Queue: 2 jobs
Job 1
Amino acid sequence: MDARDPLAHFRSRFHFPKTNSVHDCIYLAGHSLGLQPKAAGSYLEQELQDWARFGVEGHFHARNPWVPYHRLLTQQTAALVGAEPSEVVVMNSLTVNLHLMMASFYRPTPTRNKILVEGGAFPSDQYAVNSQIRFHGFDPASALLELTPREGESFLRDEDIASLIEREGSSIALILLGGVNYVTGQAFNVEEITKAGHRAGCIVGFDLAHAAGNLPLHLHDWGPDFAVWCSYKYLNGGPGCVGGCFVHERHARAWNLPRFAGWWGHDENIRFQMGPDFHPMAGAEGWQLSNPPILALAPLRASMEIFAEAGMERLREKSVHLTAYLEFLLHQSLQSSRGSPHFTLVTPPQPERRGAQLSIRLPRAGRALCARLAAEGVIGDWREPDIFRVAPAPLYNSYQDVYQFVQRFTAALTQT
Ligand SMILES: Cc1ncc(COP(=O)(O)O)c(C=O)c1O
């Protein structure tokens, strides 16, 4: 499979961590922090050189002038998430963008004030949502609505999401779900959820932290009101890298929407007149606050170039096979353990309901097992209380990585 893989050569364009053992690193943590593209250093170095050479003049005279620098990422970002260029902007980090979007799009009223989230959403999302509810004078005890799987099941059923939206829709102001749940790896049907939410009169937004660069997305056509994501997971932008934000075209000129303003969202034609009145730019760029961190954007450019070359559709095609192979080998490992399973898979088995990640529930001594594997250079990550998450990233992982991972994982299990 590796010999026939048309994307195999991209692996050599990434740095793999060094290990202390004789074995090479098996890196299956792209769902947490993607690997460094080898070209990232030269992109960064160019900006450091231009800063040294031009000082403040670099804003207009650097080889890639810094004032419009964030736009070097716009086309590729729009292509990645299936949006019009005017619908996306690369700015801030995820939780900041989530707050900015909720400042505009969570408009609770006495009768419609609830936010619908997935139960056990990423903690930062829970804190953000609860604080927004309180900020508007409501109580999360009544205004937060959580979707939870049925008794004994580990992920949500599509029909349960749809029926809850239908049942409760008239009291829901905002539906905010992940594109892919960070614990279970379940991918949600963004299009259907958006349609159901809009039918019920709700605003619909998505946290695509685990979906961007993992699944093909068609945000413009699917029609959510907004989406936010980070760029350090599948997008390999580096630790704490600048995130992305999508605002649907239908809101591009919604000047009556309240928003938290900053000078980088102000009409660029009159930005440097330094006037006191805020005139937002049309589209997603109108939600920017600050001038962008050039040194954080530079490495992301290296990765987005690679994504543009590889193409999301081809990456997804490989990803489906790679993750199915991982699942197949894990099932084999379970069968050979002769009826005393040490683990279960909590990620949906249907390819359309998951991305690259598989989440393995390890009831016994799982944390220690993961730490031991990590010390040997077999890297996934652990989420309390009992989940080991692994994700073969199609851009740099091979079928051999997957095979070797399952060998080492099974061996470690039998030693526990
Ligand atoms: C689903 C999800 N939401 C939010 C965050 C928080 O992101 P940030 O620290 O960039 O705000 C993360 C980080 O891993 C995440 O996985």
Note: The CA atoms of residues 77 and 175 lie 24 Å apart.
Job 2
Amino acid sequence: MTINYSDRIPNNVDLGSNRTLQRALEHWQPEFLKWWEELGPKDFQVADVYLRTATSVDAKGWATYGYVRMPEYRWGIFLNERDPNRRIGFGDNFGQEVWQQVPGEYRATLRRLIVTQGDTEPASVEQQRMLGHTAPSLYDLRNLFQVNVEEGRHLWAMVYLLHAYFGRDGREEAEELLERHSGDADKPRILGTFNEPIRDWLSFFMFTYFTDRDGKFQLKSLAESSFDPLARTCQFMLTEEAHHMFVGDTGINRVVRRTLEVMHELNTDDPQVIRNAGAIDLPTVQRYLNFWFTSSLDLFGSETSSNAASYFANGLKGRPDEAQYEDHIAVEQAYTLELPDGSGGTKSEQIPMRNAMNEVTRSSYVRDCEIGVKRWNRVIEKAGHSFRLALPSTRFRRSIGNWAGVPTTPEGVPMSAEQFAAHKQAWLPSESDQTFILSLMHGVHQPGKMAAWIAPPDRGINNNPVDYEYVKLH
Ligand SMILES: [Fe+2]
Ligand SMILES: [Fe+2]
């Protein structure tokens, strides 16, 4: 499974043995590069960036470090090794052999799932393209670019599947993945969250913590798929994805640490005094968290979903970590939802488990999100403050599903629209919060130097010191 780097497209799928496929992808490659130059990180294309590149999918080779100019990054096609004994792990075909080709009856659905996943990858690169200018350090700048090139590679992963298994339709979809653009009025990206530009680094850290984690859970569901090439693709993507969430987790941690330092130095928790000192007060961190967590919750779809039920029944998309469940058929179980009753209260409703798969996945996601919040709170607690960050309820500020448009407190208690409007400023980033955060965003591009609103990281990348020259600007 060593990656062949002598091919124009690095790969571990023996691309050279399929000339037609190889030529089709070599045709797509310059289109991808053109997209990268136009809509990838703005103004840093000639910088030498200390990047990680995979040279094989095993533990030894998947993380090789060195300086690369981003347009010369070796984007390629890497799948986990095939397990010849792998069986379908859930749904109506449980226990049967997994598929190496796409069954005709699931072709359109699988293509849609792959395109929807694929669309988010370049979308996030587009959303983040202006952030390089305001990076709080070279270390952070490098991490941004690492995330960006890997999202580019995830697009490659999905495009490979489209080209290799979906014929002409797949090739057309691959082209369209470069034609839709984040925030474009005529051809926007498929999912709402991926059309919002990310203008500041607090949002970037929230995005990599919360929205990349949605990506993790989507990939975990697809990694269970009976369509084996899709499963193996997603398994390898998850190894790379972990770093993106690390960037968010440690980024928020460092923001909080710096704020606590300022609170200690000035002996205050007055948000305005903390802001005047150039740090981000904790209530503002909470408001950004509320915004990004809730917009990521919507990405899982409606609580009740007949699509999700048929994905599960047909073995296309499973539950994350399907092996942890006892019953992989899930026809006899029910799931209890707490829904708005339409008159300001809530009611319980039981639905068949298969129809609740979105909610099952969303709940696992929420539990995963809690881990970082606990860690950040330990830092605050250790510093002797009573403030605590918290995930809002999954009912709060929803745009999709049963709670869409139902005003609630962050704890999920339904309230009137007037009451909500009166509290909104305290719960979600206001225009003045955004203006303040943007006012802090100035690029710090000297090795080892940090912007005043963020603490340095505990350690550098690949055992290098924090003041390593992670990006050589020219
Ligand atoms: Fe990704
Ligand atoms: Fe990611």
Note: The mean pLDDT is 96.
